[in-house]
Amino acid sequence: MHKDMILRLTKYYRILHKLKALGLERVFANNLGDAVGVNAAVVRKDFSLLNIIGQKRGGYEIEKLIQDLDKVLGKDKPQKAIIVGCGRIGGALMRYSGFEVDGIHIAAGFDVNPSICKGNECPIPVYPMDKLEEIIHEEDIRVGILAVPEHSSTEVFNRLKAAGIKGILNFTPIELKLSKQNHDEPFIIHNVNIALELEHIFYELNITENHNIDPDTGEILHPENAKKTH
Amino acid sequence: MHKDMILRLTKYYRILHKLKALGLERVFANNLGDAVGVNAAVVRKDFSLLNIIGQKRGGYEIEKLIQDLDKVLGKDKPQKAIIVGCGRIGGALMRYSGFEVDGIHIAAGFDVNPSICKGNECPIPVYPMDKLEEIIHEEDIRVGILAVPEHSSTEVFNRLKAAGIKGILNFTPIELKLSKQNHDEPFIIHNVNIALELEHIFYELNITENHNIDPDTGEILHPENAKKTH
DNA sequence: CATTTAATGTGATTAGATTCACTTATACCG
DNA sequence: CGGTATAAGTGAATCTAATCACATTAAATG
Protein backbone atom coordinates (compact mmCIF):
# COMPACT_ATOMS: atom_id res chain seq x y z
CA MET A 1 0.00 0.00 0.00
CA HIS A 2 1.42 3.33 -1.03
CA LYS A 3 -0.46 5.32 1.61
CA ASP A 4 1.89 3.86 4.17
CA MET A 5 4.76 5.43 2.35
CA ILE A 6 3.31 8.93 2.64
CA LEU A 7 2.82 8.34 6.33
CA ARG A 8 6.44 7.27 6.63
CA LEU A 9 7.57 10.36 4.77
CA THR A 10 5.78 12.59 7.26
CA LYS A 11 7.51 10.76 10.06
CA TYR A 12 10.93 11.01 8.48
CA TYR A 13 10.27 14.69 7.99
CA ARG A 14 9.51 15.31 11.66
CA ILE A 15 12.51 13.38 12.87
CA LEU A 16 14.77 15.16 10.43
CA HIS A 17 13.73 18.49 11.91
CA LYS A 18 14.47 17.24 15.40
CA LEU A 19 17.86 15.92 14.36
CA LYS A 20 18.63 19.19 12.66
CA ALA A 21 17.69 21.07 15.84
CA LEU A 22 20.19 18.89 17.69
CA GLY A 23 22.89 20.05 15.32
CA LEU A 24 23.27 16.89 13.24
CA GLU A 25 24.11 17.26 9.58
CA ARG A 26 23.80 13.79 8.14
CA VAL A 27 21.59 10.82 8.83
CA PHE A 28 21.71 7.14 7.86
CA ALA A 29 18.89 4.97 6.66
CA ASN A 30 19.36 2.96 9.83
CA ASN A 31 18.76 5.99 12.07
CA LEU A 32 15.55 6.90 10.33
CA GLY A 33 14.46 3.29 10.25
CA ASP A 34 14.96 2.90 14.00
CA ALA A 35 13.14 6.12 14.76
CA VAL A 36 10.17 5.30 12.55
CA GLY A 37 10.17 1.62 13.39
CA VAL A 38 10.87 0.21 9.94
CA ASN A 39 13.73 -1.60 8.30
CA ALA A 40 16.54 0.51 6.86
CA ALA A 41 15.89 -0.99 3.45
CA VAL A 42 12.41 0.50 3.49
CA VAL A 43 13.88 3.94 4.11
CA ARG A 44 16.29 3.57 1.21
CA LYS A 45 13.57 2.23 -1.07
CA ASP A 46 11.32 5.16 -0.18
CA PHE A 47 13.99 7.71 -1.02
CA SER A 48 15.06 5.78 -4.08
CA LEU A 49 11.49 5.90 -5.37
CA LEU A 50 11.47 9.68 -4.87
CA ASN A 51 14.78 9.96 -6.71
CA ILE A 52 16.31 11.30 -3.52
CA ILE A 53 19.86 10.08 -3.43
CA GLY A 54 22.33 9.90 -0.59
CA GLN A 55 26.08 9.46 -0.55
CA LYS A 56 27.36 5.97 -0.85
CA ARG A 57 29.02 6.11 2.47
CA GLY A 58 28.09 9.33 4.23
CA GLY A 59 24.35 8.71 4.40
CA TYR A 60 21.90 11.51 3.62
CA GLU A 61 22.45 15.22 4.11
CA ILE A 62 19.70 16.33 6.50
CA GLU A 63 19.32 19.86 5.15
CA LYS A 64 18.99 18.70 1.56
CA LEU A 65 16.71 15.84 2.57
CA ILE A 66 14.37 18.25 4.35
CA GLN A 67 14.29 20.49 1.30
CA ASP A 68 13.52 17.58 -0.98
CA LEU A 69 10.74 16.37 1.29
CA ASP A 70 9.47 19.97 1.55
CA LYS A 71 8.86 19.94 -2.17
CA VAL A 72 7.55 16.42 -2.45
CA LEU A 73 5.12 16.97 0.40
CA GLY A 74 4.11 20.52 -0.47
CA LYS A 75 5.50 21.96 2.73
CA ASP A 76 6.92 24.94 0.88
CA LYS A 77 3.43 26.34 0.35
CA PRO A 78 1.30 27.62 3.25
CA GLN A 79 -1.29 25.10 4.35
CA LYS A 80 -4.65 26.45 5.38
CA ALA A 81 -7.56 24.60 6.89
CA ILE A 82 -10.91 25.35 8.51
CA ILE A 83 -12.66 23.74 11.44
CA VAL A 84 -16.34 23.03 11.02
CA GLY A 85 -18.11 22.51 14.30
CA CYS A 86 -16.52 24.20 17.31
CA GLY A 87 -18.02 22.14 20.11
CA ARG A 88 -15.98 19.83 22.29
CA ILE A 89 -13.52 18.39 19.86
CA GLY A 90 -13.63 21.23 17.35
CA GLY A 91 -13.26 23.83 20.07
CA ALA A 92 -10.28 22.03 21.53
CA LEU A 93 -8.68 21.94 18.10
CA MET A 94 -9.33 25.68 17.70
CA ARG A 95 -7.28 26.29 20.82
CA TYR A 96 -4.63 23.69 19.97
CA SER A 97 -1.33 25.42 19.37
CA GLY A 98 0.44 22.52 17.67
CA PHE A 99 -0.79 23.27 14.17
CA GLU A 100 1.09 26.51 13.57
CA VAL A 101 4.32 24.81 14.64
CA ASP A 102 3.81 22.36 11.79
CA GLY A 103 3.09 25.09 9.27
CA ILE A 104 -0.64 24.54 9.27
CA HIS A 105 -2.81 27.63 9.61
CA ILE A 106 -6.38 27.31 10.84
CA ALA A 107 -8.04 30.11 8.89
CA ALA A 108 -11.48 30.00 10.45
CA GLY A 109 -13.97 28.07 12.50
CA PHE A 110 -17.67 27.55 11.77
CA ASP A 111 -20.51 26.73 14.11
CA VAL A 112 -24.27 27.05 14.26
CA ASN A 113 -23.57 29.12 17.33
CA PRO A 114 -20.65 31.35 16.31
CA SER A 115 -20.37 32.96 19.73
CA ILE A 116 -19.36 29.59 21.15
CA CYS A 117 -15.67 30.34 21.09
CA LYS A 118 -15.60 34.09 21.49
CA GLY A 119 -13.71 36.39 23.82
CA ASN A 120 -11.18 34.30 25.69
CA GLU A 121 -8.10 32.62 24.29
CA CYS A 122 -9.39 32.14 20.74
CA PRO A 123 -7.61 34.20 18.10
CA ILE A 124 -9.30 32.39 15.21
CA PRO A 125 -12.54 33.89 13.90
CA VAL A 126 -15.69 31.79 14.21
CA TYR A 127 -18.40 32.28 11.59
CA PRO A 128 -21.97 31.05 11.38
CA MET A 129 -22.54 28.05 9.15
CA ASP A 130 -24.07 30.08 6.31
CA LYS A 131 -20.75 31.82 5.71
CA LEU A 132 -19.11 28.48 4.96
CA GLU A 133 -19.02 28.57 1.17
CA GLU A 134 -18.14 32.27 1.07
CA ILE A 135 -15.06 31.95 3.26
CA ILE A 136 -13.90 28.76 1.56
CA HIS A 137 -13.86 30.57 -1.77
CA GLU A 138 -12.43 33.82 -0.46
CA GLU A 139 -9.58 32.15 1.38
CA ASP A 140 -9.11 29.36 -1.16
CA ILE A 141 -9.39 26.64 1.47
CA ARG A 142 -8.80 23.06 0.39
CA VAL A 143 -8.88 21.16 3.65
CA GLY A 144 -11.52 21.00 6.36
CA ILE A 145 -11.66 19.49 9.83
CA LEU A 146 -15.10 18.08 10.46
CA ALA A 147 -16.17 18.07 14.10
CA VAL A 148 -19.92 18.57 13.95
CA PRO A 149 -22.43 16.37 15.79
CA GLU A 150 -23.07 12.96 14.28
CA HIS A 151 -26.50 13.80 12.90
CA SER A 152 -25.27 16.59 10.62
CA SER A 153 -22.11 14.81 9.58
CA THR A 154 -22.98 13.74 6.04
CA GLU A 155 -24.91 16.93 5.31
CA VAL A 156 -21.94 19.15 6.17
CA PHE A 157 -19.62 16.74 4.39
CA ASN A 158 -21.57 17.20 1.19
CA ARG A 159 -21.59 20.97 1.60
CA LEU A 160 -17.83 21.01 2.01
CA LYS A 161 -17.34 18.82 -1.04
CA ALA A 162 -19.66 21.00 -3.10
CA ALA A 163 -17.79 24.12 -1.98
CA GLY A 164 -14.56 22.78 -3.40
CA ILE A 165 -12.90 21.24 -0.36
CA LYS A 166 -10.50 18.48 -1.41
CA GLY A 167 -9.50 16.90 1.88
CA ILE A 168 -11.33 16.21 5.12
CA LEU A 169 -10.16 15.15 8.54
CA ASN A 170 -13.28 13.67 10.04
CA PHE A 171 -13.77 13.46 13.80
CA THR A 172 -17.40 12.50 13.46
CA PRO A 173 -18.25 8.95 14.51
CA ILE A 174 -19.71 8.39 11.03
CA GLU A 175 -17.10 6.81 8.79
CA LEU A 176 -17.14 9.02 5.71
CA LYS A 177 -16.21 7.66 2.32
CA LEU A 178 -16.54 8.57 -1.30
CA SER A 179 -19.34 7.02 -3.26
CA LYS A 180 -18.06 4.43 -5.71
CA GLN A 181 -18.46 6.55 -8.83
CA ASN A 182 -16.37 9.35 -7.33
CA HIS A 183 -13.70 6.97 -6.23
CA ASP A 184 -11.06 8.15 -8.65
CA GLU A 185 -11.40 11.89 -8.17
CA PRO A 186 -8.76 13.45 -5.97
CA PHE A 187 -10.49 13.69 -2.64
CA ILE A 188 -8.85 12.61 0.60
CA ILE A 189 -10.76 11.56 3.66
CA HIS A 190 -9.18 10.58 6.95
CA ASN A 191 -11.45 9.33 9.65
CA VAL A 192 -10.33 9.75 13.24
CA ASN A 193 -12.78 7.92 15.39
CA ILE A 194 -11.59 8.34 18.94
CA ALA A 195 -14.06 5.94 20.51
CA LEU A 196 -13.15 3.38 17.86
CA GLU A 197 -9.46 3.79 18.65
CA LEU A 198 -10.17 3.16 22.32
CA GLU A 199 -12.32 0.16 21.57
CA HIS A 200 -9.57 -1.13 19.37
CA ILE A 201 -7.17 -1.03 22.31
CA PHE A 202 -9.59 -2.87 24.56
CA TYR A 203 -10.10 -5.48 21.87
CA GLU A 204 -6.42 -6.03 21.31
CA LEU A 205 -5.86 -6.34 25.03
CA ASN A 206 -8.74 -8.73 25.35
CA ILE A 207 -7.55 -10.88 22.51
CA THR A 208 -3.93 -11.03 23.62
CA GLU A 209 -4.77 -11.58 27.28
CA ASN A 210 -7.67 -13.96 27.14
CA HIS A 211 -5.97 -16.86 25.42
CA ASN A 212 -8.40 -16.70 22.56
CA ILE A 213 -5.40 -17.22 20.35
CA ASP A 214 -4.20 -20.69 19.60
CA PRO A 215 -0.59 -20.65 20.83
CA ASP A 216 0.42 -23.06 18.05
CA THR A 217 -1.23 -21.70 14.95
CA GLY A 218 -1.79 -18.08 16.03
CA GLU A 219 -5.37 -18.63 15.00
CA ILE A 220 -8.06 -16.80 16.92
CA LEU A 221 -10.37 -19.23 18.62
CA HIS A 222 -14.03 -18.92 19.23
CA PRO A 223 -14.70 -18.44 22.97
CA GLU A 224 -16.41 -21.80 23.30
CA ASN A 225 -13.52 -23.66 21.71
CA ALA A 226 -10.87 -21.51 23.32
CA LYS A 227 -9.88 -23.30 26.46
CA LYS A 228 -10.71 -26.91 25.79
CA THR A 229 -8.10 -28.21 28.18
CA HIS A 230 -9.91 -31.36 29.23
CA MET B 1 -1.15 -7.82 9.03
CA HIS B 2 -3.51 -9.08 11.65
CA LYS B 3 -4.13 -5.67 13.24
CA ASP B 4 -6.23 -4.78 10.23
CA MET B 5 -8.52 -7.65 11.04
CA ILE B 6 -9.25 -6.36 14.55
CA LEU B 7 -10.02 -2.99 13.04
CA ARG B 8 -12.40 -4.64 10.60
CA LEU B 9 -14.07 -6.52 13.43
CA THR B 10 -14.76 -3.25 15.26
CA LYS B 11 -16.31 -1.89 12.11
CA TYR B 12 -18.45 -4.94 11.49
CA TYR B 13 -19.56 -4.69 15.09
CA ARG B 14 -20.74 -1.10 14.77
CA ILE B 15 -22.54 -1.72 11.53
CA LEU B 16 -24.23 -4.79 12.94
CA HIS B 17 -25.65 -2.69 15.76
CA LYS B 18 -26.98 -0.16 13.28
CA LEU B 19 -28.55 -2.87 11.14
CA LYS B 20 -30.10 -4.41 14.22
CA ALA B 21 -31.53 -1.03 15.17
CA LEU B 22 -33.12 -0.88 11.73
CA GLY B 23 -34.86 -4.14 12.44
CA LEU B 24 -32.79 -6.43 10.21
CA GLU B 25 -32.19 -9.97 11.36
CA ARG B 26 -29.66 -11.38 8.95
CA VAL B 27 -26.75 -9.98 7.03
CA PHE B 28 -24.64 -11.24 4.12
CA ALA B 29 -20.91 -11.08 3.73
CA ASN B 30 -21.53 -8.79 0.79
CA ASN B 31 -23.45 -6.28 2.91
CA LEU B 32 -20.74 -6.05 5.52
CA GLY B 33 -18.08 -5.92 2.85
CA ASP B 34 -19.75 -2.98 1.13
CA ALA B 35 -20.22 -1.11 4.37
CA VAL B 36 -16.66 -1.60 5.55
CA GLY B 37 -15.17 -1.23 2.09
CA VAL B 38 -13.66 -4.69 1.69
CA ASN B 39 -14.34 -7.70 -0.46
CA ALA B 40 -16.99 -10.15 0.72
CA ALA B 41 -14.38 -12.90 0.78
CA VAL B 42 -12.47 -10.97 3.44
CA VAL B 43 -15.56 -10.86 5.62
CA ARG B 44 -16.08 -14.59 5.29
CA LYS B 45 -12.40 -15.30 5.94
CA ASP B 46 -12.48 -13.13 9.05
CA PHE B 47 -15.47 -14.95 10.49
CA SER B 48 -14.14 -18.29 9.39
CA LEU B 49 -10.92 -17.58 11.32
CA LEU B 50 -12.97 -16.79 14.40
CA ASN B 51 -14.94 -19.99 13.96
CA ILE B 52 -18.04 -17.90 13.49
CA ILE B 53 -20.24 -19.72 11.03
CA GLY B 54 -23.18 -18.54 9.01
CA GLN B 55 -25.84 -20.43 7.14
CA LYS B 56 -25.04 -21.66 3.71
CA ARG B 57 -27.74 -19.63 2.16
CA GLY B 58 -29.27 -17.31 4.75
CA GLY B 59 -26.12 -15.38 5.59
CA TYR B 60 -25.28 -14.55 9.20
CA GLU B 61 -27.74 -14.05 12.02
CA ILE B 62 -27.10 -10.52 13.29
CA GLU B 63 -28.01 -11.16 16.90
CA LYS B 64 -25.77 -14.19 17.18
CA LEU B 65 -22.98 -12.45 15.29
CA ILE B 66 -23.07 -9.54 17.71
CA GLN B 67 -22.94 -11.90 20.66
CA ASP B 68 -20.00 -13.76 19.18
CA LEU B 69 -18.12 -10.54 18.51
CA ASP B 70 -19.03 -9.35 22.01
CA LYS B 71 -17.10 -12.26 23.42
CA VAL B 72 -14.22 -12.18 20.99
CA LEU B 73 -13.72 -8.48 21.53
CA GLY B 74 -14.35 -8.39 25.25
CA LYS B 75 -17.43 -6.21 24.96
CA ASP B 76 -19.27 -8.26 27.54
CA LYS B 77 -17.07 -6.87 30.31
CA PRO B 78 -17.20 -3.20 31.38
CA GLN B 79 -14.35 -1.20 29.89
CA LYS B 80 -12.82 1.48 32.06
CA ALA B 81 -10.23 4.05 31.13
CA ILE B 82 -8.64 7.16 32.60
CA ILE B 83 -7.64 10.42 30.98
CA VAL B 84 -4.26 11.80 31.96
CA GLY B 85 -3.90 15.48 31.18
CA CYS B 86 -7.14 17.46 31.08
CA GLY B 87 -6.05 20.44 29.01
CA ARG B 88 -7.37 21.14 25.54
CA ILE B 89 -7.63 17.69 24.09
CA GLY B 90 -7.95 15.81 27.37
CA GLY B 91 -10.58 18.22 28.63
CA ALA B 92 -12.58 17.85 25.46
CA LEU B 93 -12.47 14.09 25.81
CA MET B 94 -13.63 14.38 29.43
CA ARG B 95 -16.74 16.14 28.17
CA TYR B 96 -17.18 13.87 25.16
CA SER B 97 -20.36 11.88 25.54
CA GLY B 98 -19.63 9.29 22.85
CA PHE B 99 -17.69 6.91 25.07
CA GLU B 100 -20.52 5.74 27.30
CA VAL B 101 -22.57 4.94 24.23
CA ASP B 102 -19.86 2.51 23.18
CA GLY B 103 -19.68 0.91 26.61
CA ILE B 104 -16.51 2.69 27.63
CA HIS B 105 -16.50 4.32 31.04
CA ILE B 106 -14.05 7.12 31.79
CA ALA B 107 -13.39 6.48 35.46
CA ALA B 108 -11.25 9.53 36.25
CA GLY B 109 -9.16 12.37 34.93
CA PHE B 110 -5.76 13.49 36.16
CA ASP B 111 -4.07 16.85 35.87
CA VAL B 112 -1.36 18.86 37.58
CA ASN B 113 -4.14 21.34 38.15
CA PRO B 114 -7.10 19.21 39.24
CA SER B 115 -9.45 22.18 39.48
CA ILE B 116 -9.13 22.63 35.70
CA CYS B 117 -12.34 20.83 34.93
CA LYS B 118 -14.40 21.47 38.02
CA GLY B 119 -17.91 22.75 38.56
CA ASN B 120 -19.63 22.94 35.21
CA GLU B 121 -20.62 20.08 32.94
CA CYS B 122 -17.97 17.62 34.12
CA PRO B 123 -19.34 14.62 36.01
CA ILE B 124 -15.99 12.77 35.99
CA PRO B 125 -13.71 13.38 39.00
CA VAL B 126 -10.35 15.00 38.30
CA TYR B 127 -7.46 14.08 40.61
CA PRO B 128 -4.00 15.56 41.01
CA MET B 129 -1.19 13.66 39.33
CA ASP B 130 0.11 12.10 42.55
CA LYS B 131 -3.10 10.11 42.95
CA LEU B 132 -2.43 8.37 39.63
CA GLU B 133 -1.04 5.05 40.87
CA GLU B 134 -3.51 4.85 43.73
CA ILE B 135 -6.61 5.22 41.57
CA ILE B 136 -5.28 2.90 38.88
CA HIS B 137 -4.89 0.14 41.46
CA GLU B 138 -8.12 0.87 43.30
CA GLU B 139 -10.22 0.92 40.16
CA ASP B 140 -8.23 -1.77 38.34
CA ILE B 141 -7.70 0.42 35.29
CA ARG B 142 -5.96 -1.13 32.27
CA VAL B 143 -6.25 1.59 29.66
CA GLY B 144 -5.19 5.24 29.74
CA ILE B 145 -5.69 8.17 27.41
CA LEU B 146 -2.56 10.29 27.36
CA ALA B 147 -3.15 13.97 26.64
CA VAL B 148 -0.42 15.71 28.60
CA PRO B 149 1.90 18.35 27.11
CA GLU B 150 4.66 17.06 24.87
CA HIS B 151 7.46 17.62 27.38
CA SER B 152 6.01 15.29 30.02
CA SER B 153 4.83 12.68 27.55
CA THR B 154 7.43 9.96 28.06
CA GLU B 155 7.63 10.53 31.81
CA VAL B 156 3.90 10.02 32.29
CA PHE B 157 3.97 7.13 29.83
CA ASN B 158 6.51 5.34 32.01
CA ARG B 159 4.51 6.03 35.15
CA LEU B 160 1.41 4.55 33.56
CA LYS B 161 3.31 1.50 32.43
CA ALA B 162 4.84 1.02 35.86
CA ALA B 163 1.41 1.35 37.46
CA GLY B 164 0.12 -1.60 35.48
CA ILE B 165 -1.59 0.10 32.56
CA LYS B 166 -1.69 -2.23 29.55
CA GLY B 167 -2.95 -0.01 26.78
CA ILE B 168 -2.48 3.64 25.90
CA LEU B 169 -4.21 5.94 23.47
CA ASN B 170 -1.64 8.65 22.95
CA PHE B 171 -2.63 12.13 21.78
CA THR B 172 0.80 13.54 22.50
CA PRO B 173 2.79 14.56 19.42
CA ILE B 174 5.57 12.22 20.59
CA GLU B 175 5.21 8.85 18.91
CA LEU B 176 5.35 6.40 21.79
CA LYS B 177 6.64 2.89 21.31
CA LEU B 178 7.85 -0.01 23.35
CA SER B 179 11.57 -0.46 23.75
CA LYS B 180 12.83 -3.41 21.77
CA GLN B 181 13.32 -5.76 24.72
CA ASN B 182 9.71 -5.23 25.85
CA HIS B 183 8.40 -5.79 22.39
CA ASP B 184 6.72 -9.10 23.11
CA GLU B 185 4.94 -8.19 26.34
CA PRO B 186 1.24 -7.47 25.95
CA PHE B 187 1.14 -3.71 25.79
CA ILE B 188 -0.85 -1.81 23.22
CA ILE B 189 -0.05 1.71 22.10
CA HIS B 190 -2.09 3.70 19.61
CA ASN B 191 -0.76 7.05 18.58
CA VAL B 192 -3.25 9.64 17.39
CA ASN B 193 -1.28 12.58 16.10
CA ILE B 194 -3.81 15.08 14.91
CA ALA B 195 -1.34 17.47 13.31
CA LEU B 196 0.26 14.53 11.54
CA GLU B 197 -3.11 13.42 10.20
CA LEU B 198 -3.72 16.88 8.81
CA GLU B 199 -0.26 17.05 7.26
CA HIS B 200 -0.90 13.67 5.77
CA ILE B 201 -3.96 15.02 4.00
CA PHE B 202 -2.07 18.01 2.66
CA TYR B 203 0.68 15.72 1.43
CA GLU B 204 -1.66 13.35 -0.29
CA LEU B 205 -3.44 16.26 -1.95
CA ASN B 206 -0.14 17.76 -2.99
CA ILE B 207 1.14 14.53 -4.43
CA THR B 208 -2.03 13.67 -6.32
CA GLU B 209 -2.54 17.20 -7.61
CA ASN B 210 0.93 18.30 -8.48
CA HIS B 211 1.76 15.74 -11.10
CA ASN B 212 4.67 14.46 -9.09
CA ILE B 213 3.49 11.04 -10.06
CA ASP B 214 4.56 9.52 -13.32
CA PRO B 215 1.27 8.83 -15.10
CA ASP B 216 2.76 5.74 -16.73
CA THR B 217 4.55 3.95 -13.96
CA GLY B 218 2.82 5.44 -10.93
CA GLU B 219 6.27 6.27 -9.65
CA ILE B 220 6.69 9.41 -7.60
CA LEU B 221 9.03 11.81 -9.31
CA HIS B 222 11.51 14.18 -7.79
CA PRO B 223 10.29 17.77 -8.24
CA GLU B 224 13.10 18.62 -10.63
CA ASN B 225 12.36 15.65 -12.87
CA ALA B 226 8.64 15.92 -12.52
CA LYS B 227 7.47 17.99 -15.42
CA LYS B 228 10.11 17.52 -18.07
CA THR B 229 7.70 18.18 -20.89
CA HIS B 230 10.21 19.79 -23.27
C1' DC C 1 47.92 4.68 -3.29
C1' DA C 2 46.16 0.21 -2.14
C1' DT C 3 43.15 -1.75 1.36
C1' DT C 4 39.54 -1.88 4.44
C1' DT C 5 35.26 -0.52 5.97
C1' DA C 6 30.71 1.48 5.86
C1' DA C 7 26.83 2.82 3.81
C1' DT C 8 23.82 3.31 -0.34
C1' DG C 9 21.01 1.34 -4.23
C1' DT C 10 18.49 -2.28 -6.09
C1' DG C 11 17.20 -6.92 -8.15
C1' DA C 12 15.64 -11.18 -6.11
C1' DT C 13 13.26 -13.43 -2.48
C1' DT C 14 9.99 -14.00 0.98
C1' DA C 15 5.94 -13.27 3.52
C1' DG C 16 1.41 -11.84 3.99
C1' DA C 17 -2.82 -10.42 2.78
C1' DT C 18 -6.38 -10.12 -0.77
C1' DT C 19 -8.95 -11.93 -4.42
C1' DC C 20 -10.45 -15.65 -7.30
C1' DA C 21 -12.81 -19.62 -8.28
C1' DC C 22 -14.68 -23.59 -7.08
C1' DT C 23 -17.23 -26.74 -3.68
C1' DT C 24 -20.79 -27.29 -0.41
C1' DA C 25 -24.97 -26.62 1.85
C1' DT C 26 -29.66 -24.92 2.07
C1' DA C 27 -33.63 -22.16 1.28
C1' DC C 28 -37.09 -21.47 -2.10
C1' DC C 29 -39.98 -22.56 -6.10
C1' DG C 30 -42.43 -25.06 -9.42
C1' DC D 1 -40.06 -33.66 -3.83
C1' DG D 2 -36.53 -32.72 -7.24
C1' DG D 3 -34.27 -28.73 -9.32
C1' DT D 4 -32.34 -24.29 -9.13
C1' DA D 5 -30.44 -20.36 -7.25
C1' DT D 6 -27.89 -18.28 -3.60
C1' DA D 7 -24.52 -17.46 -0.41
C1' DA D 8 -21.12 -19.55 2.81
C1' DG D 9 -16.60 -21.77 3.15
C1' DT D 10 -12.02 -22.44 1.56
C1' DG D 11 -7.78 -23.95 -1.06
C1' DA D 12 -5.21 -21.89 -4.79
C1' DA D 13 -3.57 -18.01 -7.24
C1' DT D 14 -2.32 -13.37 -7.35
C1' DC D 15 -0.82 -9.15 -5.90
C1' DT D 16 1.70 -6.14 -2.87
C1' DA D 17 4.93 -4.77 0.35
C1' DA D 18 8.75 -5.84 3.24
C1' DT D 19 13.20 -8.01 3.63
C1' DC D 20 17.37 -9.93 2.12
C1' DA D 21 21.63 -9.97 -0.01
C1' DC D 22 24.86 -8.40 -2.81
C1' DA D 23 27.02 -5.20 -6.02
C1' DT D 24 28.57 -0.41 -5.90
C1' DT D 25 30.66 3.56 -4.34
C1' DA D 26 33.22 6.48 -1.38
C1' DA D 27 35.48 7.70 2.76
C1' DA D 28 39.17 6.47 5.99
C1' DT D 29 43.46 4.44 7.21
C1' DG D 30 48.17 3.28 7.15
What are its keywords?
homodimer, alpha/beta, six-stranded parallel beta sheet, two-stranded antiparallel sheet, disordered C terminus, DNA-binding
What is the secondary structure topology, with strand pairs?
The structure is a homodimer of 230-residue chains.
Chain A: H1 3-21, E1 26-27, H2 29-36, H3 40-49, E2 60-61, H4 62-73, E3 79-84, H5 88-94, H6 98-101, E4 104-111, E5 126-128, H7 132-139, E6 143-146, H8 153-162, E7 167-170, E8 188-191, H9 194-209, H10 223-226
Parallel strand pairs in A: 3-4, 3-6, 4-5, 6-7, 7-8
Antiparallel strand pairs in A: 1-2
Helix pairs in contact in A: 1-4, 2-3
Chain A binds a DNA duplex (30 and 30 nucleotides) through helix 3.
Structure commentary:
Two copies of one chain form a homodimer. By secondary structure, chain A is of the alpha/beta class. Helix content of chain A is 43%, strand content 14%. Chain A contains ten helices and eight strands. The first copy, chain A, has helices at residues 3-21, 29-36, 40-49, 62-73, 88-94, 98-101, 132-139, 153-162, 194-209, 223-226, and strands at residues 26-27, 60-61, 79-84, 104-111, 126-128, 143-146, 167-170, 188-191. In chain A, the strands form two sheets. In chain A, strands 5-4-3-6-7-8 form a six-stranded parallel sheet, sandwiched between helices. A two-stranded antiparallel sheet of chain A has the order 1-2. In chain A, α8 (153-162) links the parallel β6 (143-146) and β7. In chain A, α1 runs antiparallel to α4 (62-73) and α2 crosses α3 (40-49). The longest helix of chain A has 19 residues, at 3-21. Chain A is globular and about 60 Å long. The relative contact order of chain A is 0.08. The model of chain A is unreliable at 213-220 and 222-230 (pLDDT under 50). At the A-B interface, α1, α4, α5, α6 and β7 of A face α1, α4, α5, α6 and β7 of B. The first copy, chain A, binds a DNA duplex (30 and 30 nucleotides) through residues 1-2, 4, 28-30, 38-42, 44-45, 47-48, 53-60.
